[in-house]
Design a protein that fits this description.
With 217 residues, the chain is mainly α. Helices cover 68% and strands 0% of the residues. The chain has 17 helices and no strands. It is elongated. InterPro entries: ARM-like, ARM-type_fold.
């Protein structure tokens, strides 16, 4: 291709400088979100500026931010991850639909990010999403299975919701990845720490003993 004329290059550089200057001066989340569709430098700066705003200003734009976790530029992906990673419990609850949708995405990064955010909620808030969390115990990727068990730890003191899903948890004791299996064991121990939990586990005592024998062997 023919070389870029110096004047054209100068104008492009001037436009870029002006755009970044305007971006740096903006504290409006809507304006910043619009910049997420620009080049990588603008996307990264917009994300970093968004991270300086209150959670309430970020929540309406989480659905726009989420695909950037798969951005072609590492620095942009990292900025998106850092932004989502700082949202606190109330903000996470405010964008729960976006997060639970991501649990079904093919991207390992997106599934793990969603589960990491769900860890900030309590068992009561997570209860409506328990079925999909249980499904992830058979995910093809062990980091997802591990992250799902971390979230399920929130139910350790709430045996009633987990009761119907105990067979799935027992299967996790045989997970091919030993760390995941140990997490499942810890969750079952937490359940067994209460009288209600022991009652829920009682029908599965033979299976638990069989698994214990395998682990000992």
């Amino acid at each position: 291709p023919p070389p870029t004329h110096p004047l054209t290059h100068h104008r492009q550089l001037l436009w870029s400088v002006r755009s970044v200057t305007l971006l740096m001066a903006s504290t409006n989340s809507d304006e910043l979100a619009l910049m997420l569709g620009q080049g990588p430098v603008m996307r990264e700066k917009a994300l970093r500026l968004l991270s300086q705003l209150d959670d309430s200003a970020i929540v309406p734009h989480v659905r726009t931010i989420w695909p950037i976790l798969e951005d072609t530029e590492w620095s942009v992906r990292n900025a998106a991850m850092m932004l989502l990673g700082r949202l606190e419990e109330e903000a996470v609850a405010g964008c729960i639909d976006v997060i639970t949708d991501a649990l079904t995405h093919t991207s390992l990064n997106e599934r793990c990010q969603a589960l990491e955010m769900l860890e900030r909620l309590d068992g009561g808030s997570l209860a409506p999403h328990l079925d999909i969390l249980i499904q992830l115990l058979t995910d093809s990727e062990w980091p997802v299975r591990s992250a799902a068990l971390e979230v399920l730890q929130k139910f350790g003191a709430l045996p009633a919701p987990l009761g119907p899903h105990l067979p799935a948890l027992l299967l996790s004791l045989k997970d091919e990845h030993t760390y995941v299996a140990s997490q499942a064991l810890e969750l079952l121990r937490a359940l067994a720490s209460s009288t209600a939990g022991l009652r829920a586990l009682a029908p599965y005592a033979p299976k638990l003993l069989a698994v214990a024998g395998c682990l000992a062997g």
